[in-house]
C-alpha cells in the first residue's frame, strides 16, 4: 500500500503544527469571532461595524512577502515573516482609510516543519494582536514537487472597514500640500530578489562596517513596519489626511502616482529623510543609479502622507519620527514624481 506520507505529504505533521499554533491564534480573537480555528470557514460578526458606521465599506487586500522567505530560510529565522505579512496588508488598506478587522493566512512548503510553521504563525498572531485584529483562519499546505526542498511561501488576506464618507482616494490632494514620510525599517517586503543576488555572495552572517554591528541577514529581515497606530494618532489629533501611499514594489515612481489627482506632481527633496544603511550597501554592491534604486527599493520611505501645509507642524509633533520630505505642485504633464535638491 502506498500512503499519502509515501507521496511526500504528512497529514499528522500538519495537524500537529495546527494544534501547536492554536493558542496564539485564539489569543487574537474578540467577541466578534463566531467561528475560527478548526471551522471550515471563519465567521465574523459585523454588528458592531454596522452600528458605528453610517455606510460601512469593506476593504480587502491580498499579498505575500516575496523572496524574503528565501532569506529567512537561509538564515534559519522565520519569526519576523508573519509580522511582515500582516503589516504589509494593514498598510495597503490604510491607503483607503480602512481600519483592519480580520486576517487570513496561507503557508505552503515542500515539507512542513512544525517548528517553522508555528514560529511563522506566532509572528502573524503577534502582529494581529498589536493591531487589534483577529487571525480568523488560514491554510497550511504541504506541496512536494511544487516547492523545492527547504522553500516555503506565505501569503494572506486582510479585510477592513471604512465609512464611505471617510474613504481616501487621493482626490483631496492639491497643490501646496506637503509630503510627510513615515520611515521604513528596511526593505520591508520588496526588492529581495535583487538584495539576495548582491548580498548572498557576501554571506548573510557577515557584518559590514556600514551596518554598525548588524549582520546582513539581520538587516534584511528587519520587520515590515505597520503604520496603523500613527495614522490613528493623526486622526485623533484632527490632522486631515488627503492621501496615503504605501511605498512597496515599484518604489516612489509607481506607488505615489496611484493616489495623485491628474493635475499635480510631487517633489521629494533629496537628503530630507534618513536612508537606512542596508540600502546604501545594496546600492553600492549593485552599482545602481538613483532612479533604479528608488524604483526597486523604498530607500527609507515606508509611507507617504499628503496633508495641508498648515497642518505639517502638528503632524510632525504627533509622530516623533515623521519627516517632511516634499511638496505637491501643480503640473499637468509628466513626470508625476521628481527628486529635487531644494
TrEMBL record:
GO biological process, one term: adenine biosynthetic process
PANTHER family, per the entry: TRIFUNCTIONAL PURINE BIOSYNTHETIC PROTEIN ADENOSINE-3, TRIFUNCTIONAL PURINE BIOSYNTHETIC PROTEIN ADENOSINE-3-RELATED
Molecular function terms from GO: ATP binding; phosphoribosylamine-glycine ligase activity; phosphoribosylformylglycinamidine cyclo-ligase activity
Occurrences of domain PurM-like N-terminal (ranges): 55-162
Lineage: Bacteria, Bacillati, Chloroflexota, Chloroflexia, Herpetosiphonales
Family statement drawn from the similarity comment of this UniProt entry: Belongs to the AIR synthase family.
EC number per UniProt: 6.3.3.1
Protein's UniProt keywords contain Nucleotidyltransferase: no
Protein name in the entry: Phosphoribosylformylglycinamidine cyclo-ligase
Entry-linked Pfam families: AIRS (PF00586), AIRS_C (PF02769)
Organism listed in the record: Herpetosiphon aurantiacus (strain ATCC 23779 / DSM 785 / 114-95)
GO cellular component, as recorded: cytosol
Keywords carried by this UniProt record: ATP-binding, Cytoplasm, Ligase, Nucleotide-binding, Purine biosynthesis
Amino acid at each position: 500500500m502506498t500512503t499519502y506520507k509515501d507521496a511526500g505529504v504528512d497529514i499528522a505533521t500538519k495537524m500537529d503544527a495546527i494544534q501547536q499554533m492554536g493558542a496564539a491564534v485564539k489569543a487574537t480573537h474578540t467577541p466578534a469571532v463566531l467561528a475560527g480555528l478548526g471551522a471550515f470557514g471563519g465567521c465574523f460578526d459585523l454588528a458592531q461595524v454596522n452600528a458605528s458606521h453610517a455606510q460601512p465599506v469593506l476593504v480587502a487586500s491580498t499579498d505575500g512577502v516575496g523572496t524574503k522567505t528565501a532569506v529567512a530560510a537561509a538564515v534559519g529565522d522565520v519569526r519576523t515573516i508573519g509580522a511582515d505579512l500582516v503589516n504589509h496588508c494593514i498598510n495597503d488598506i490604510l491607503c483607503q482609510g480602512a481600519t483592519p478587522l480580520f486576517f487570513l493566512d496561507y503557508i505552503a512548503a515542500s515539507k512542513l516543519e512544525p517548528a517553522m510553521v508555528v514560529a511563522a504563525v506566532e509572528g502573524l498572531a503577534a502582529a494581529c494582536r498589536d493591531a487589534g485584529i483577529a487571525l480568523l483562519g488560514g491554510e497550511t499546505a504541504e506541496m512536494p514537487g511544487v516547492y523545492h526542498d527547504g522553500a516555503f511561501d506565505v501569503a494572506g488576506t486582510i479585510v477592513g472597514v471604512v465609512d464611505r464618507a471617510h474613504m481616501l482616494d487621493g482626490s483631496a490632494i492639491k497643490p501646496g500640500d506637503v509630503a510627510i514620510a513615515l520611515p521604513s525599517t528596511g526593505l520591508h517586503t520588496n526588492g529581495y530578489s535583487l538584495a539576495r543576488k548582491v548580498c548572498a555572495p557576501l554571506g548573510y552572517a557577515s557584518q559590514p562596517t556600514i551596518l554598525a554591528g548588524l549582520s546582513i541577514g539581520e538587516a534584511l529581515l528587519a520587520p515590515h513596519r505597520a503604520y496603523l497606530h500613527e495614522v490613528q494618532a493623526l486622526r485623533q489629533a484632527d490632522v486631515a489626511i488627503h492621501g496615503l501611499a504605501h511605498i512597496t514594489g515599484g518604489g516612489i515612481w509607481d506607488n505615489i502616482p496611484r493616489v495623485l489627482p491628474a493635475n499635480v506632481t510631487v517633489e521629494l527633496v533629496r537628503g530630507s529623510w534618513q536612508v537606512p544603511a542596508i540600502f546604501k550597501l545594496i546600492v553600492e554592491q549593485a552599482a545602481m543609479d538613483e532612479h533604479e534604486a528608488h524604483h526597486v527599493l523604498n530607500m527609507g520611505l515606508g509611507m507617504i502622507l499628503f496633508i495641508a501645509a498648515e497642518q505639517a507642524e502638528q503632524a510632525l509633533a504627533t509622530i516623533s519620527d515623521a519627516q517632511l520630505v516634499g511638496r505637491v505642485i501643480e503640473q499637468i504633464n509628466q513626470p508625476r514624481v521628481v527628486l529635487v535638491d531644494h
